[in-house]
Amino acid sequence: MLNPFPEGWYFVAERKAIERAGLLQRTWLGNQVVVWCNDAGDVCVAEAVCPHLGADLSPDAGGRVRNGCLVCPFHGFEYDSTGRCVATPYAPPPKSARLRVFETTEIAGMILAWHGIGDRSPQWQIPALPPRGHDWSELEIRSIRFAGHPQETTENSVDLGHLRYVHGYDSVGRAGPLVIEGSCLKCSFDFKRTRAFAGLEIFKYDVSAVSSIHGLGYSIVDIREHSIGIDSRLWVLATPIDGTDIEVTLVSQVRLLRSPKRSIAGMRFLPLRLRTWILNKILISAQRHDVMQDVVIWRRKTFRPRPLLCRSDGEIMKFRRYCEQFYPGGKLLLADERLEFKESADSSSPEQADQVRARTA
Ligand code: FES
Ligand SMILES: [Fe+2]
């Protein structure tokens, strides 16, 4: 079994959702965490356990935020956004009282937190987005939870074969080499797509996509649709929850569609912002539809450490070597699984080894 919590940056929540809720609770990479922000906008993601006597700090248990500080429901100790205890109701705060906090970063209003091997500090950063001006729509967000792993979901970015077979894309082709630079992997591909209704071909799309992967929790895909002239970008944020389930959050944004190269059914006379807003809704629904097709495969598939690949699958092993940096000692599998896998490969006949491999994979 793949180690369920590879190192990296993982989505926690939208800043808007944190501000709206005041205090959020999440199960995030096997941790119960609380999330809030102070009046200056500093976000804190902390383990929901009070260092005093261990009370649960989540809002369900009575935790709340007052004047930008998290207040424990048990004895009222207060913690600031760095996790430091700054006040108690009846004595000076103990100097060493501090929440376990996770380092955060923010991309386009999305808050991600760092999960490090052995709690080590961030080894790399997600690059800031280039300024895009005001000609981009608001974000559309959809989340899907299922039994899965972020490496398996991310692997689909380099698995061009499935684009045709699962999603029905046409003329899928790589548009450039797969490039790995440290924690970043980039790949680009082109495809065509026909949407049919009542047996008639209604829409034809001609798409170029560049996917930038920064660890297994954060991918951004820049998408250019040539026939209409739509620029959009899609984030795919895969977050392990509890060692079994993950949540894939899809976030879509579209550049204002001022002058489409061809008409889009019924949208020509709509005001520009409304037209773009509708378009973004359509795109996120299409993306969600595609991901739901993948989910059928993901939730039932077995991780094969040594897959049987055909020649055009070559990039999959390159992707897996890239992934090794996110696991303790570069080992993708949990320790006991590795042992069983190694023993079977060392001592069995090829047939037996394959059976054990299938069991442990
Ligand atoms: S357990 Fe939190 S203040 Fe005592
Ligand atoms: Fe897919």
List the keywords.
8-stranded antiparallel sheet; 2 domains; 361 residues; alpha+beta; 22% helix; single chain; disordered C terminus; binds FE2/S2 (inorganic) cluster; Rieske Iron-sulfur Protein; Naphthalene 1,2-dioxygenase Alpha Subunit, Chain A, domain 1; binds fe (ii) ion
Low-confidence stretches: 347-361
Largest sheet features: 8 strands, antiparallel
- Overall, the morphology is globular
In this entry the ligands are: FE2/S2 (inorganic) cluster, fe (ii) ion
CATH architecture of the largest domain: Alpha-Beta Complex
Terminus-to-terminus distance: 6 Å
Strand content is 25-35%
Count of individual helical segments: 7
Please report the total strand number as a whole number: 19
Please state the average pLDDT score: 88
Question: What value does the Rg take, in angstroms?
Answer: 23 Å
- Sheet/helix structural class: alpha+beta
Helix content: 10-25%
CATH class of the largest domain, named Alpha Beta
How do the helices and strands follow one another from N- to C-terminus? EHEEEEEEEEEEEHHEEEEEEEHHHH
- CATH fourth-tier homologous superfamily of the largest domain: Naphthalene 1,2-dioxygenase Alpha Subunit, Chain A, domain 1
Return the CATH topology of the largest domain.
Naphthalene 1,2-dioxygenase Alpha Subunit, Chain A, domain 1
Domains (count): 2
Describe the structure in brief.
This protein is α+β, with helices and mostly antiparallel strands and 361 residues long.
Structure write-up:
The protein has about 350 residues and is α+β, with helices and mostly antiparallel strands. The chain folds into two domains: about 110 residues, Rieske [2Fe-2S] iron-sulphur domain (Rieske Iron-sulfur Protein), CATH 2.102.10.10; about 160 residues, Naphthalene 1,2-dioxygenase Alpha Subunit, Chain A, domain 1 (Alpha-Beta Complex). Helices cover about 20% and strands about 35% of the residues. It is built from seven helices and 19 strands. Strands 12, 13, 14, 15, 16, 17, 18 and 19 form an eight-stranded antiparallel beta sheet that branches. A four-stranded antiparallel beta sheet has the order 2-3-4-9. The protein has a four-stranded antiparallel beta sheet with strand order 5-6-7-8, with no helix packed on it. The longest helix is centred in the C-terminal third of the chain and has 27 residues. It is globular. The N and C termini lie close together (about 5 Å). About 30% of the residues are buried. The C terminus is likely disordered. The site of FE2/S2 (inorganic) cluster has 9 residues, from loops.
